[in-house]
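Supplementary material to the annual report.
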Amino acid sequence: MKTLVLANQKGGVGKSAVATLMSHYFAQHGQRVLAIDFDHQGNFSGSMRRSSRVQDAGITADRLLTESVSVMPSADLVLVAGDTPLSMLELQSTNHTPFARNLRHFLAVMDQQFDVCVIDTNPGPDIRVISALASADFVLSPIQLNQEAMEGVHGLLNHPRAGVRKIKAVLNPKLQLIGLLPTMVESTPFQRANFLQIVQRYHPLLIRIGDGPGDFASIPRRSSIAEAQAHGEVLWQMKKSAAREAWKEIEPTLRALAAIVMGQQQARAHASSQSGAGHDTVA
Ligand SMILES: Nc1ncnc2c1ncn2[C@@H]1O[C@H](COP(=O)(O)OP(=O)(O)OP(=O)(O)O)[C@@H](O)[C@H]1O
Ligand SMILES: [Mg+2]
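Predicted assembly:
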């Protein structure tokens, strides 16, 4: 089982939307998917639950941290939903190490039952995010193309507790940063200028989906993507032509991301660390 974490300390950047799209994409392609929501707001849980394809695990995600869980329902798309107790875990600092250990144990036990685990996280570098990153194979960071979000990239890499560099060095050397995924991208001059800025500054962290100069993974702002999330529908199964158009636009991005996670393509972070380039040159 490969574990993918969606993380960005900024709120409202599209983490839950991307987690939902990726979970359905993996399931559509025959992968057995374990979806975990570490956000007590439960947005990812809400949209997954509204889908008839999803089997609820019957326990909430806080228990994956506070207990030793070793059984999940037998189904191809299982959700462990987020709930309010998740927001209390950060206060229980003496239990943080057992929390991370419980999750690692749980994911190890699920290794044969599922092909991929998608973990959506809360915006904030707390023990939920740290525990997820400490056991994951991959982290993907949705970002919006505004100044504030771009400043957040520094935190993603360098936060003293939850930054990818610290997690890799201290807790989980196998963690690979897939990269930054610009979301809700609009074709306004302002966003185009910000995109150029981000390409210039962070291009090693953007995710290539082709050989052309602008061929980076991204998700446009489309109302059908928000609608699919709100109604628990699968974007590419919606009847509206706008949804089909949106699907055509994002399919290459989802395909590239899925290929990285399932090992059909080397993650850029891995490839660059092997060549010695790494990400230490940016941010
Ligand atoms: N590509 C998109 N096009 C249009 N709307 C989108 C898109 N992606 C996300 N949204 C909408 O933007 C809002 C914020 O997205 P989402 O909940 O995925 O962000 P988040 O990073 O998970 O937020 P939080 O940090 O609060 O968990 C939601 O209403 C969602 O439906
Ligand atoms: Mg969210």
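The pocket of magnesium ion (ligand 2) is lined by residues 15-16, 39, 43, 120 (CB under 6 Å).
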